[in-house]
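DATA SHEET
Item: assembly model
Revision: 1
Owner: S.N.
Input lines:
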Amino acid sequence: MKPTISPSILNSDIGDLRGQLRLISGADVAHVDVMDNHFVPNLTWGLPVVEACVRADVLPVDAHLMIEDPDRWAPAYAEAGCASVTFHAEAAAAPIRLAREIRRLGARAGLGLRPATDIAPYAGLLGEFDMILVMTVEPGFGGQRFLEPMLEKVRRTRAAISASGLQISVQVDGGVSRETIERAAEAGADNFVAGSAVFRAEDAAAEVDALRALAGRHCH
Ligand SMILES: O=C(CO)[C@@H](O)[C@H](O)COP(=O)(O)O
Ligand SMILES: [Co+2]
C-alpha cells in the first residue's frame, strides 16, 4: 500500500484554520481530533470546527473521535462530508451497526484501539472497516513519545488483515516523526498521523514530504 500522511491539526494555529490546512495541502488527509473530556482528559472541538475543515476544501478530512457514545455522534461527522470517521472500540456500544451507518453515509469507517486494547477480539469485524487505528500514544494529547511496544500490535493487525484478504489501512497516531515512522511502516502501517512533527517543523510542507519518503522505503 502507498503511504499516506495525515497531519493532525491538534497543535496547529487553529485561529487560522484555512491557512493551516493550506500549509499542509501537500499531505493526503487532514486529521482532526475530537475530544470530549470524558473518553480522554482533554477537550477540543466538535462538529462545527470539523465542518469548517470540510468546507475549507483543501484536503479530505479524517475525523478521529475520542468521545463517549460515538453511536450517537459519529454519523453526523460522516454526514458533514468527512472522508473517514474513526471511533474507538472501547467507547462504541454497537460497532458493527455504527460502522455500517458511517459507510452508508458515504465515509470510510475506522476503528480506533487504545494502547491497552488488543486487535484479537475485533479480528472478526475487519470486513466492516476501511481503517484500523493503532494508537501509539495514550489518546488525549499531542507531543507525546511514541510507544515502541505498539509496533507489535501494528504487526499483528497487519497480519490479521492480510489473513482476511481485505484491503484495509493501518493508521498509527501519536509520536510519529522522522525517528519513528520507518519502524511503523516496516511493521505494517500505511497511514501516518503526525501532529507536532509537522506543525513544529520550520517547513511543514517539506516535513510532510520527508515523512512520506521515509515511510515509502518500507510500504509495499
Ligand atoms: O489523537 C491524537 C492524540 O490523542 C493525535 O492525533 C495527536 O494529535 C498526534 O499528535 P503528535 O503525537 O503527532 O504530536
Ligand atoms: Co488523532
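QC remark: The radius of gyration is 16 Å.
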